[in-house]
Amino acid sequence: MAGVTDRPFRMLCKKMGAAMAVSEMITSNKALWTTAKTLRRADHSGEVEPISVQIAGADPAQMAEAARLNVEQGAQIIDINMGCPAKKVCNVAAGSALLRDEALVARILEAVVKAVDVPVTLKTRTGWCREHKNALRVARLAEDCGIAALALHGRTREDLYHGEAEYDTLRAVKHSIGIPLIANGDIDTPEKARYVLDYTGADAIMIGRAAQGLPWIFREIQHYLDTGERLPSPAVEDIRHVLLEHLDDLYGFYGEYSGCRIARKHIAWYTKGLRGSNEFRQAMYQLESTADQRQAVAISTGWPRNRSGWNTWKGTTPWRRVSVQSDEVGRQGAG
Predict the structure, then answer these.
(1) Exposure string (b/e) for 157-187, b if CB count within 10 Å is 16 or more?
(2) Which of 6, 53, 174, 264 has a beta carbon 3.0–4.6 Å from 70's, enabling a disulfide?
(3) What pTM was estimated for this model as a whole?
């Protein structure tokens, strides 16, 4: 998830139980490789293995070169993005726009697989639109081209993130290929994780947006898969501690100016639904230094002080939000 699964967030998710976390998209456009944004996205210093780097583009030769470069810089897995529905990505015929050209999909997959000696995975969607779902054909192409595993989101590009993800296509794909399938889309509770694994037969699940502000979802899901029981919700002070550590990592990674601004969305995700949180966020958005921002979180007294209060605002309905590109826990991941 661009703008979310940076190194601090990936390391936090792994600490919370994710077995794998995939980087933000790195462009295959060589002209952008030396920009501050790309260099930061390619920074894996101190990151827990395995290191999986996602690349995006529409030119087979450029994608192959990008894969080689990232392996030289420490990538242990190369992930190809053919699932991003964002206009700025699709407008340059990358991401999920590639699903309209299966011949080009095959050329890109073949080029990248041949270019590196590490596993290559593919992240994609069920198709360009609901009337033209081609995930089955793309999945078979991927297997034939040597892709090691396929992550499949249960929506089309046209769907964006509207409506609900469907899992019938994922189930059909799993039954038609021999490589591992990673299910993705609307997996936001331990119960939903269990359901999707059972219904689709997938080998793993990927968690994306559900981990925003709730990185402990990984250990909650793993515990539920192992025991059939839910972990108790984290205590409020434990949540505050996680958030403060996350902020410190963001400040160290991005520096004073960018760190303060990037942290705002994370604070908003962590505090969404809390009593008085809207007023807190509006005041927090006005703070211009990391020290003031951190202090505001550290001394805030508006948070509920018991587990029932936490559950009230986070919601515990099995098929709704309780809990990022791309992360896995045992049989589960994020993305």
Answers:
(1) bebeeeeebbbebbbbbbeebebebbbbbbb
(2) 53
(3) 0.85
